[in-house]
Amino acid sequence: MESHTEDQAENGQDANGPSPKKPKSWPVPITDAEIRSEFSHHDLAVARINNGSFGSCPSYVSAAQMQWQLQFLRQPDHFYFNVLQPSLLRSRLLIKDLINADDVDEVSLVDNATTAAAIVLQQVSWAFFQGSFSKGDAVVMLHYAYGSVKKSIHAYVSRAGGHVIEVPLPFPVASDDEIISEFRKALALGKSNGRRVRLAVIDHITSMPSVVIPVKELTRICREEGVDQVFIDAAHAIGNIEIDVKDIGADFYTSNLHKWLFCPPAVAFLHTRKCAASADLHHPVVSDRYGRGLPLESGWIGTRDYSAQLVVPSAMEFVNRFDGGIVGIRKRNHEKVVEMGRMLAEAWGTCLGSPPEMCCSMIMVGMPGCLRVSSSEDALKLRAHLRDKFHVEVPIYYNPPKNFEGQIKDFSSMVTGYFRISHQVYNVLEDYHMLRDAINKLVQDGFTCRMLCS
Question: Gene3D superfamilies this protein is in (predicted)?
Answer without folding.
Answer: Type I PLP-dependent aspartate aminotransferase-like (Major domain)
